[in-house]
Structures are given as structure tokens and as C-alpha cells.
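Late entry, zinc ion complex.
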Amino acid sequence: MRWTQTLISTLRDAPQDAEIPSHKLMIRASLIMKLGGGLYTFLPLGLKALRKVERIVREEMDRAGALEVLMPALQPREIWDQSGRYEVLRDGMFKIRDRQDREMVLGPTHEEVITDLAARQINSYRQLPKTFYQIQTKFRDEIRPRFGLMRAKEFSMKDAYSFDVSWEAADASYQAMYDAYVRIFARCGLATKVVEADTGAMGGNFSHEFMVLADAGEDGLAECEGCTYAANLERAERATPARDPETTPQHPEAVVTPGKKTIEEVSAFLKLTPDRLIKTLIYLANGKPIAVLVPGDRDLNEHKLARALGGVTLQMADDQTIAKVTGAPVGFSGPVGLKIPVYADLDLKTPRVAAVGANVADTHLRNVLLNRDASVTEFYDLVIVREGDACPRCGKRLREKRGIEVGHVFKLGTKYSKTFDAGYLDADGNRQISVMGCYGIGVTRTLQAIIEQSHDANGIIWPLSVAPYQVCLVVPNTQHAESVRVAEDFLKTLEAQGVDVLFDDRDERPGVKFKDADLLGIPIRVVVSERSLADGKVEIKLRTEADKKMIPLADAVAFVESIIRGEK
Ligand SMILES: [Zn+2]
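Prediction complete; structure with ligand written out below:
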């Protein structure tokens, strides 16, 4: 392809709303163009790279035995009511009406549609196992779309769904997808970290996320310095710190704390460090009030709380509910004398002398011992893990990292197959329910994550496997006929071998061409100049290396091909 015949408009500066390196580079290198908030057009260069990521995904899905289908993005509301997820996801979905005033949604995911497909297409155990996949556009009404393709309103995903006769068989399907994901990301040149993850609105039993470590990542994760334990912060557990039990002969003493509501305010006022306070939070669990206690210097992890209570739906209690169950306004709740279930973090199980809200306006209680002065229904690990906590597996130190989630595999179980009656007749003719798994890869997000992980001050550094062009052919002086003739020969020969070549045939200064080649991140740069040809050579430089090589003209094509085959 000749530069003058395609559409590449590189920019010196990134637009103001581009905050992270990959977003800036995608715009500057003319891969994508913004249409509106969270909406992007793929320009020819970006689309070429995207298609290569898609091809890798498709090849590995096919290799793993998954069957490609294509489901509608436009879905009737009824199937979302049937699964009960319309209410769960409603604010995050684009909802529209057709001319008959029927409500439809633009699919943010396809569990409902695929389970309906399986319910109607699969009848016998002989048809199982089956894994279906598609590469398709998804829609999410993001509150704050940002970071380019990382959090867009419209994006491309590969989603796959497995159906099996049993939980054991479902494990095999899960593992097959897990292994395929490892291969996909490796082929995309991405280093990923696999972490245990929360299942959230998807439901199901366990799941893993494939994370690309990056400071700009929106997900927090914890990894152990001593073993392989790694988990999303939503999920991460900690070993409960060992401490000596405390006691005091003194009894709870009311202290007037006028207007002091937050941990910081109370801590400063009572001259107690935050870990000497116990935070009392009032929630509604499936609509019923509960109290949750965590050490004053820690934050509650709602995901862990919801899971500990058997997958309840949690809501922070409103001011009225708090006044009703505690008898005091917000900010003065405490566990002493509460008549609702009280759940506390495991760290509080070892008695410690602490201060708590008194359930009286403008008042706290000092010298409280939880085991003596209050009744706790149950202790669980409930706080958000932080750097320095102990690993739940080996006790060594946990480190905090940021990551970009590019893939997610879930073992779903029978949540959807039960609802949609997706089952089969077993060998004895009895009706059974299929066990499901679901597996997603953010295809457009993966493309951007590759850039986030692989760039330098000069631009993108594409891995060969997904680079829009593998070779950038530069003729510094297009007035030199011999250089142009050799370059055109080169272009023709390499393209005939199936190599993607971009020939910079612009009438531009050499410096501009070299700068653009670096910005575009094309892995192999071949320079044909009057000077190199005088020695019968061309100059070949890899984007990943500083050194140039002078290669005899006759060997140049073979040399480039050997780099592409991974031999050089
Ligand atoms: Zn560990």
C-alpha cells in the first residue's frame, strides 16, 4: 500500500481529552477518530490492526472447538425480564422502542440470547458439549466514557458460552477456553496476569480475569510476593492479622462529639488513631436492614459482603432507615444495643478496646469491647485488601497493582439454563439442565491494551502479529528514480508473499517520514536511498532496536521474511 493512496493523518499533539498514552497514540497515529463521547470511528490503519486481533481470536476459538454464531445486537426486553437482569442492568443499557412501541435493548452481553438458542437447538446429551462464540458490537451506557476504546459506549467483544452435561464436564470447557485465552493474548504480544475475580451481575461460582498490568488500568488487583495468588481487589482476601486480645475493666462511656461524624473527625476529636475506632455502616440486604462493622482505618468491600451473605443485593440505607434502626442521625451509628443483624470483619473478632457511635445524636462511646458490649451475628473477611496485607494462601505480603481487564472467564452454573429451560435428555431419557460457562474478550480494548503495554516516547511499538503493516518502506528522496524503482520492486515482491507493506511515497522531508514511521510503530523499517544503493544495499531497522543493518539488495526480501517468520 502506498501512503499517498491510503488515509493516514498523523498528529503532532493529542487532543485534550486523551488522558492515557494508548489513547493519545491511537489518535495521533490515525488509528481511530472520535465521533462523540465513547464513540469512535476506526480509520483504515486502526481497522487493519483490529482485524488482525479478531483473526487471532477466531483462529484460537475455532482451534478450541467453539462454533461461531452471530446474534442480534437488538434484543426484545422480554428475555431480559425473563432472566431478571433488566432491573439489575437497566441504567447501563441503551433502551429503545420500535414503531409498535415495543421496548428493545441494545445488547450489553448475550447470555439471554444464547441460552434461548441452546434451549431450542439442543435436545440430547449427544449434542453436548457445545461452545458457541461470536465477535460482535456491544453497547453500554457508560456514566463516564473515557480512555478511548477502554471504556466506550460501543465496542467489539468476543463472547463465548459453553453448555455441558455436568459440572465436571463444564470444568473441561472452562479450561479449554482458559487455555485458548492464554494463547490469544500471547499471540497478540500481550503479557497478561490471570487473577481470581468477582462474578458480579453475571452470577455464577468462580471466574478469572486476564489483566494487562498498566498504571492507567481501571482495575485494582492484589498479588502475592511469595506465591501465585492474585485477585481483583473486588475479590481479594487477606489472612486475618494476628493480634493480642485486649480487655479493660472500664465500661462504655458516652462522650459528646458535636457534629463529629466521619472517622477523621472523631479520631481527631477523641485523640484516638483510626484503628481504635470501629466503623458501623447500615445497609439494606435484600431490603432488610443490617449493620456492618469494620476497623476504622479500613474500607468495606461490598462485593465480599454480598458474597458472604449468600449473594444478597446490597444498598446503603437511607437517612430515614438509619434513624429508625439506630435512633440517631447518620454518623453516630454503633453496634451497642442494635436490634438488627450485625456482621463484622474478622479482624474485630480478637477483642480490642475501641470507640463506636452511641446511637445517640452527637455522641460516641469509648472503652467498648465488642465481645462484651455488643452481639455480633457473624464475622467474615469484609474489607478491601491493601498493600502490605497478608496473603490468604501463604501469609506473605500482598502488593497492589493496576490492570486493564482484557478477558474474563466465568463458570456460570445453571443460573441461565434453569431460567430458560436449556436442558437435554440424558442417556436414560430423563430431562436434565445444562451447566454453562461464559467467556469474554474485549477485542477493541485488547487492541488498545497492546499499545498501552508497548510504546515509547516516539510512538507505538506493534508486535508483528497485530501490526497494521509489518514493513514500512521509506524512500528519503522520492526524486531519486533508482530508489523509487527499487522500493516499488520491493513492495511488489513482499506483497506477493502476503506481507503487509506501507510504502511512504510522500514528497516529504526524510525526518518527517522517519518520525511518522516511529509514531505508527511499524515493526520493520526498510530505507532505500541513493547512498545505500551506491553500496548495493538497503538499510533495515527494527522498531524495537536502535541499531540499523545494511543488507545487500539481493538478500533483503529473504531477510525481511525471516524476521516475520521469527527467525531473526
Ligand atoms: Zn501467597
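The chain has a mean pLDDT of 95. Will revisit in the morning.
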